[in-house]
Amino acid sequence: MKSIYSLVDLDTLEEIKHFYFPPWNRELPYNILISKKPKEEEARHHVQYIHSLCCTNTTSIYTDGSQTKEGQGVGYSFASYNYTDFFPPTLPTYSQKRNIGDKQVVYNRELEAIAEAISYASQNQEGENWEYNIFSDNQAAIQRLQTPSDKPGQNNQIKTTEAAKAITSRGGTVNIVWVPGHSDIIGNEEADRLAKKATLINSSSTNTSFAFLGIKINELKRSEIKLYLEQNKKSKSLVSYASRYLARILSKIQLPRGTYRELASSFFQLKLGHRYLRAYLHRLGIT
Predict the structure, then answer these.
(1) How far is residue 121's CA from residue 159's CA, in Å, rounded to a whole number?
(2) What distance, in Å, lies between the first and last C-alpha atoms of the chain?
(3) What is the CATH number of the domain that holds 80?
(4) Looking at the domain assignment, is residue 5 inside a domain?
(5) CA 36/CA 140 separation, integer angstroms
(6) Residues 92, 213 within the same domain
(7) Residue 16 shares a structural domain with residue 70
(8) Number of domains in the chain
(9) 229 and 139 share a domain?
(10) 81 and 221, same domain (yes or no)
């Protein structure tokens, strides 16, 4: 644990409220909708759905996040559209963008964008029986909001839950819906444009996410493994093949294509000497 203290400022690490969501009360005040249709088909269906919303008490809010080479930090945005007119709007009635710093990852910006969009809807609810559609092209963020837990991202789940409860208590409805990205959907394209612009403005946050800390830990692990392999390469010991084969650091063991798992397991057990062998059993004091 001491080896990770210097990776990030732990005082800025995102807060987790343990046991905030009791097991007996995990009913969500919002609906989660993720289509299983192909991206192109869902994009066409989405456009048709938007046209059907004309002259209804509906607000659609598109969210997005971005990280660009030109910018610094992570940006997110949302763009809100009302459908009280006879034609679908082409310009948002309200939009917002923000830079949440360089100690966040893609997942965090998408999650925070959804939470902020629902908070905005709660603070500006049009009236009773109003429906709010929160559209996001990031399924991982939507799925995180599907299961209340004490895992990272909880702060945004709490914010989403509280804001949605306020809307439903006034007779409203909240839907969090997946929408395919980069499919010429006006609202999604506008949110994407604003999120990219957000990366060019100054950060308004110094918070650090667990996901960012995880990246730093993996970088440290890789550097330590690489150093170990380099040291073994210089050694004359016969325990390493580093002098003959280029070492690669992978997240899991790679098996040759077509190799049965049982055969591969036997091979690795023999190479490591951990198998039902007399020498191994002797080390354990069995024989």
Answers:
(1) 12
(2) 39
(3) 3.30.420.10
(4) no
(5) 14
(6) no
(7) yes
(8) 3
(9) no
(10) no
Per-residue model confidence (pLDDT) at position 283: 87
Query: Is residue 14 predicted with pLDDT exceeding 80?
Result: yes
The model's confidence at residue 205, banded by pLDDT at 50, 70 and 90, is: confident
Integer angstrom CA distances of residue 188 from 62, 78, 193, 244: 6, 9, 9, 51
Does this model's pTM top 0.85? My answer is: no
Strands 75-82 and 94-99 come out as antiparallel
- b/e per residue 125-159 (b: at least 16 CB within 10 A): bbeeebbbbbbbbbeebbebbeebeeebbbbbbbb
Is residue 44 situated within a structural domain? Answer: yes
Residue 282 lies in domain? 255-287
Point out the least confidently predicted range of 224-228, 230-234, 250-254, 265-269: 230-234
Integer Cα distance of 23 and 149 in angstroms: 9
* Count of other CB atoms within 10 angstroms of residue 169: 10
- Say which DSSP state 144 is in: H
Within this chain, do residues 233 and 271 fall inside the same structural domain, yes or no? no
The H-assigned helical ranges of 199-283 are 210-234, 261-272, 278-283
E runs forming strands in 44-153: 58-66, 75-82, 94-99, 131-136
Identify whether residues 279 and 146 lie together within a single domain. no
Angle at 107 between CA 34 and CA 80, to 5 degrees: 65
Residue 1, in any domain of the structure: no
- C-beta of residue 191 within 8 angstroms of C-beta of residue 47: no
Contact assessment for residue 102 and residue 73, using Cβ atoms and an 8 Å cutoff: yes
Note whether residue 224 is domain-resident: yes
Which has the closest alpha carbon to 2: 12, 10, 95? 10
Q: How far is CA 250 from CA 7, 58, 170, 225, in A?
A: 22, 48, 52, 11
Indicate if 188 and 221 belong to the same structural domain: no
Nearest to 190 by CA among 135, 138, 140: 135
- Same domain? For 242 and 158 the reply is no
